[in-house]
Design a protein that fits this description.
Layout (H helix, E strand, L loop, with lengths): L2 E6 L6 H14 L4 E9 L8 H9 L3 E8 L5 H8 L6 H12 L4 E9 L11 H8 L3 E5 L5 H14 L4 E9 L5 H14 L3 E6 L7 H11 L10 H9 L1
Helix pairs in contact: 1-2, 1-8, 4-5, 6-7
């Protein structure tokens, strides 16, 4: 795949850490990687954003941010309040396509969930993925409530003609509760696609070398890692 769209079941589920892990593994294989953030919200002009965090964790990757809005709100609301033009799906798709011409892998990281609005017309990340004919990776939470959010995300994605590649738990707790333990087997059912990884909580606070090892252990061989969902589930029951 040359373009992969990374979405989440909501805000704060670990999309940036997963994006960085994907980038780190691809770089380790010698691939040229680019990360596109169509809309960054809640960050001032001189503050580091999500693409800067990806660079810190993954190393030498090309990054591009189309629009930055200071308010920590959904992109459409933040754009309206700031007076800065909204991101249009065609613009984001064009930027990803341009990056794909000179890179082996382009990761498009959304803001919030799949249907968070970019503009007043209701355009979303789903429209960007559709325009690119790109597969979708869903980043989900581990615990209670994640099954419904994951099922809703996957269902609307499928209804819009998108290919849901799989689901990754963005922050696996050091001490998982009963809901999290049960969700390991239930998340693939909710997503209608396989569990392709689980990154440990706090992974984003690691240094680059340690993060690469965590990425390798926490992501599927599809992405260059060693994660095996069946082995992971068995390990939790011992």
């Amino acid at each position: 795949m040359s373009v992969l769209v990374v979405t989440g079941t909501g805000t704060g589920v670990g999309k940036t850490a997963v994006t960085a892990a994907l980038a780190a593994l691809a770089r380790a294989e010698g691939r040229r990687v680019a990360v596109l953030k169509p809309a960054q919200t809640g960050v001032g002009p001189e503050e580091p954003g999500d693409v800067d965090e990806v660079t810190r964790l993954a190393g030498d990757v090309t990054t591009r941010e189309l629009r930055r809005y200071p308010d920590p709100l959904a992109p459409e609301v933040a754009a309206r309040r700031s007076g800065i033009p909204p991101v249009r799906p065609a613009e984001a798709a064009r930027a990803a396509s341009e990056l794909a011409e000179s890179h082996d892998l382009v990761l498009v990281e959304g803001a919030g969930g799949l249907l968070v609005r970019f503009d007043a017309e209701g355009a979303t990340l789903a429209d960007v993925a559709w325009a690119l004919s790109a597969p979708l990776l869903v980043v989900a939470e581990a615990g209670l409530g994640t099954l419904n959010a994951t099922a809703l995300t996957a269902e609307v994605a499928t209804a819009r003609g998108l290919n849901v590649l799989g689901v990754v738990v963005g922050s696996w707790p050091a001490q998982p509760d009963l809901a999290a333990l049960c969700n390991v087997s239930d998340l693939p059912v909710a997503a209608g696609s396989p569990l392709l990884g689980a990154l440990p909580e706090g992974a984003g606070g690691l240094g680059r070398d340690a993060f690469l090892e965590v990425a390798r252990a926490g992501l599927s061989p599809w992405f260059g890692g060693d994660f095996d969902a069946e082995r992971f589930e068995k390990g939790l029951s011992t």
